[in-house]
Known about the structure:
The protein is of the alpha/beta class. Helix content is about 40%, strand content about 15%. It has helices at about 25-35, 80-85, 95-115, 125-135, 140-150, 175-190, 195-200, 215-225, 280-285, 290-295, 320-335, 350-360, 375-385, 390-405, 425-450, 455-470, 480-495, and strands spanning about 15, 20, 50-60, 65, 75, 120-125, 155-160, 200-205, 230-235, 240, 255-260, 265-275, 300, 305-315, 345-350, 370-375. Strands 3, 6, 7, 8, 9, 10, 11, 12, 13, 14, 15 and 16 form a twelve-stranded mixed beta sheet that branches. A two-stranded antiparallel sheet has the order 1-2. Helix 8 (about 215-225) links the parallel strand 8 (about 200-205) and strand 9.
Amino acid sequence: MVAFAPTREKSVGASIDQGLPNICGHESEILAAVNHSDPVFLPETNLNLDQISAGFACALHMHQPTIPAGAQGELISNLQHMFEHQGIGDNHNAHVFADCYKRMGDWIPDLVANGQNPRIMLDYSGNLLWGIEQMGREDIMDNLRRMACDRQYQPYVEWLGTMWSHAVAPSTPIPDLKLQILAWQHHFAALFGMDALRRVKGFSPPEMHMPNHPDTQYEYIKALKECGYRWLLVQEHSVERIDGSSLHHEDKYIPNRLVARNSRGETISITALIKTQGSDTKLVAQMQPYHEAKGRGRQQIGGVEVPCCVSQIADGENGGVMMNEYARDFQPLWSEITQNGRGVTGVVGLNGTEYLELIEAAGVNPNDYPVCQAVQQHKIWQRVNPDQATPEAVEKAIAELKETDHRFHMDGASWTDDLSWVAGYENVLEPMNQLSAKFHAKFDPQVESDSATTQTREYREALLYNLLTQTSCFRYWGQGTWTDYARELYNRGIALV
């Protein structure tokens, strides 16, 4: 067991309580902790902005869904199911997957001990974190604690928040967006402490899925900001310029200001780092963002010259390239650029919050970032005057566009346009929405009259099933086993509400 110095921070309780993950019950404490404007990386970074020609920021996305597939139908991680059924499909990769969830906790300390200056951003779903605990894999958890809690490695590792059960935002019921976000924050704080949670300022959307319905996108960004997030990763083709054109090429390498306008004309914005298109796992596993950054340089934002940053994310375990080639390419690279940004001018690795804090400390105003919005929205605002918008006018415009423009949709956009998490999955979506509605009908009045309701087992168990039915995996593999899992989760959840 790895030991870390104790803190005096307020506890949110055990990460697992009576068999349930800690996903609710301390909402006010969580929100008080995360809503701060203190710099996170700036006091600790060892980089000099003036000595950075360009940067690259890579994130690893890790996820395994929770499924009702234990020996007695109990909830288990799909990773556990893979270990227990090695002869099915690619389940033989279970050991390799588990090592992928663990290995960064070995690589980063080794690199730092050898004088290197690595950077990595980590995105672990709540499902996966719970599953690792359920399996008793303390070897993995110890490495994750090292990355989250040991101050020695905090300049090098950034944790990103996400939806607890890997829900894709466009089809998540609007009232559950904030519950998904808060559930992950609860769980992360229970595992690694409130101090570690205070450092989580970037958000990684599951499947890089961006809502483009005006009201859903507005509530999504509103929830992110209310939960203390400063920025999120955005897939480049999921957004557009205000006039509907694609992002300018140069704008993909600096922060953007993502603006959302709802059907009442209200606006809200958040900083976005643009993830460029490409074969994600191959790009990250072979460290191609570094090689791309070598061909870039510094740019102007509002009259301030700053290094550009190539941002990319990939599954941290899926695919032969990530499983087999990443170790070969990730570790040796850092010796090539050890002194860059700290005595020598050149390309450096960055983390997202570190990059934003460095350039804003140099005088960049976030209001000068290029402005973007969710894809397809310009078509709505061409038909509806934003200053006179009403829900009725917006819905009328959407209906007309669906009738006249076969390319128009309000399903959002993700890392691929070839896959839908909506079409053909009505047998999952309708029960999912029904469970959400019944959950809120039962518990919202109780929570409003007594906030301690969220600390009860009854609430937590019902919330768990509500969130689990929203897991994107149940709408990825087509009809069959995975949609059956969703139906079983719905049946259990509906019995609780």
